[in-house]
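Help: read this over?
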Amino acid sequence: MASKKILDLLGDKASFLLDHKPVIDKSTLSAFPSPHHVEEIWTNSGRSNQVLRSIQTLISHGRLADTGYLSIFPVDQGIEHSAGASFAANPIYFDPENIVKLAVEAGCNAVASTFGVLDIMSRKYAHRIPFVVKINHNEFLSLPNRYDQTLFGTVRTAWNMGAVAIGATVYWGSAESDRQLKEIAEAFEIAHDLGMATILWCYTRNAGFKVDGVDYHTSADLTGQANHLGVTLRADIIKQKLPTNNGGYLATHHGRTSPLVYSKLTHPDNHPIDLTRYQVINCYNGRVGLINSGGESKGASDLADAVFTAVVNKRAGGMGLILGRKAFQRPLNEGVEMINSIQDVYLDKDITIA
């Protein structure tokens, strides 16, 4: 049985998550998160020995070291959402050192942030915690606001500061996605040549993905296809939002899908573990790790919401959680406690892959 703390945080959703049997049985997955992830998956690939070492460095750090799971602390919201909107609630995070300190004190596998944040702290911390440099962003100052990802620096700059990996976003479905995928494919190739791992933020973005008042940006079918495109770019890890619904293709009447996606690979009741498992199978049937994002901070429910997301990700066969705003928009000690509570889900041997 899961720990009392986790059961209490799940509340009346405990049985809903912990007793669920997905439509896609775990026996059909090709791989599960494992301490031997590199040996089981990447030694058969074209990745170099240096890349294998970088992936292993991520897996072998922090409280989740050598479990096969990842807990990454990301802070790029100062660009993506503006610094004021992100840090006004807790101004200590205007200082990059406190971003890195929180990741270190929480025992994260890595800290993911901007060129500026990580570079100014690199000589002090790059040897203490793996750095993931986010190389592109949607800056939110232009008027009118536009939704595009722009490169903020070079892969070699990230390598020179001691980063183990780079991260990047592609807005799949956007008018700019063709340019973005070419830029990031080239960046990932350079990163792999330098021996770095790659993480892709696989987000959907198109006004047409909202139909009759329903937002399908986080539908399982659209995000699943985004994941499939992401692994094609040779991402070593996929970052994706937790799915909230399904049937994006059916609502937009674009692209192609199959009725079997909705009858055999997911279930009409849209159970979050079924929807997330569909994301997992689109990451080469579990061979490429899926980490889900923790989402925005909503206040008092943040801890329970984060544990809910972690349980869904783990039981679906995902590789971990990447959580930022819920942790840094509160006092540092509370942020550490929240991240540790999420890590406890992955350390709990009674919470199994469904």
In short: The first strand starts at residue 70 and ends at 75. DSSP finds 16 helices and twelve strands in the chain.
